[in-house]
Amino acid sequence: MPKTLKETFAAKLPEELLKVKELRKNHGSKVVGEITLDQVYGGARGIKSLVWEGSVLDSEEGIRYRGRTIPECRTQLPKAPGGSEPLPEGLFWLLLTGEIPSEQQVRMLSADWAARSDLPTYVVDLIDRCPQDLHPMAQLSLAVTALERDSSFAKAYARGMNKQEYWEYTFEDSMNLIAKLPSIASRIYHNVFRQGKTTPVAVEKDKDYAFNLVNQLGFGDIEDFTELMRLYVTLHTDHEGGNVSAHATHLVGSALSSPMLSLAAGFNGLSGPLHGLANQESLNWLQKAKAAVGDDLSDQAITAYIRSTLSSGQVLPGYGHSILRKTDPRYLAQREFALRHLPNDPLFKLVSQLYKIAPAVLKEQGKVKNPYPNIDAHSGVLLQHYGLKETRFYTVLFACSRALGVLAQLIIDRAYGFPIERPKSYSTEAWARMVKAKL
Ligand code: AMX
Asked: Ligand 1 pocket, 275 CB below 6 A?
């Protein structure tokens, strides 16, 4: 019998802990950077202050998961029988352990998640009582927060557990959370967009995570949609530690709040339009653009529409990034999928034309540091193609994926015994004194 994920992580942990111990013992006092006042006032941009094992973002190349690029992950991670996109289960395994799992190990993880997927009745009732006009992300956050009642970490802490055990309870809670997300998400979907007239079908215990997500939403008969969701969930998991959802989960987790409360914090951050809500905003924008230009996808018509958005003081959703300075490879992976599966979709044609035109128009402004598309410029077009057209739901799908990355790191945080986070703050007057400025 091959090792389970928990056994694999536990077996590697002593070696990893020793590496960190030696690094800090021999180099702990070395200087690793300096910061400017602009960085302090500029959203801590580029300040090196976090440890994040799963992925590192290079401004030119994009994300690498445990050293592997997206194209490498797409070929190396195990697939579903007959499928060609990677299974997100494999990426979760890679993020947590640094190892590519075998097919059998991935099947074991799919089965484990499916077995943990049932929702407690009080969570179902809570979701069902939400008003339909409460944003689906707020409903998701409520449901995840409510799962706190069943947190094995919180219960063990209240009993008085040994610090060495923190990661094991965090692991159990994280596995339960990930497993339940498709059932929560689809319940919200049916309530809000099908007026509660339909309910999600049961999780199929012998199927993978992405299949069950698509199937519970009601699209299980579209095979290509399941393949898309395998890719989608894999691509949205992790983008190193400083983005809002990752950092918020990590920060709240550093107070030893349960994985449920930590993840809910991350989801609340993901709900912002400058972060995860950009996928909703992006498709809304594309639809408005399509309504305005009709079939005229000429360079002039598209340029004029982008300019009208920018001149009204709005951002172009799906473009720009705090760290990336090139086209997001996650955008390119989705583009490749679209070229293969839906080359003639009218909105995909608009997205392609925008990819050609928008960077130059954004550059005209002279202030945008990265005029190229990010992941959110593409995802909505793929979802709407398969019939999932409710843009208000899109960030929930992002969340079902992002949970994998931030919870993998939360398990590592607890295994490494990271302390509570507490950066130093100063008033403007105090900063001015520090740089010898007169106010
Ligand atoms: N459209 C219009 N203006 C933009 C822009 C865009 N897509 N991207 C950046 N700018 C503007 C900024 O608003 C800022 O203007 P200001 O000086 O008047 O305030 C200026 O250009 C400089 O910003 P920046 O340093 O290039 O970006 P940033 O690190 O401050 O912000 C981001 C990054 C993503 C928030 C920004 O590019 C943006 O708002 N993009 C649109 C929303 C979006 O796609 N978000 C999703 C990001 C990925 C994700 O988290 N899911």
From this structure: yes
First to last CA, the chain: 69
SS3 content of the chain, % helix, strand, coil (to 5): 60, 5, 35
For residue 420, the 8-state DSSP code is: P
Q: What are the tens digits of pLDDT across the range 218-245?
A: 999 999 999 999 999 999 999 999 999 9
Count of CB atoms situated within 10 Å of the CB of 231: 24
Residue nearest to atom 30 of ligand 1 (CA): 322
**Which residues carry out catalysis?**
275, 321, 376
Ligand 1 atom having least distance to the Cα of 374: 48
In the predicted structure, residue 1 carries a pLDDT above the cut 90:
no
On whether the CB atoms of residues 178 and 411 are closer than 8 A, the answer is no
Reported in sequence order, the residue ranges of 249-327 that DSSP labels E, i.e. its strands, are none
What six digits make up the tokens of 175?
């596995």
Gyration radius (Cα) of the chain, Å: 22
Question: pTM of the entire structure?
Answer: 0.96
User: Cα separation of 412 and 97, whole Å?
Assistant: 9
Ligand 1 centroid – CA 315 distance (Å)? 7
Residue 57 pairs in a beta bridge with 63
Whether ligand 1 lies within 6 angstroms of the CB of 218 is answered as: no
CA of 246 to the centre of ligand 1 (A): 18
Tell me the C-alpha distance between 246 and 264, whole Å.
11
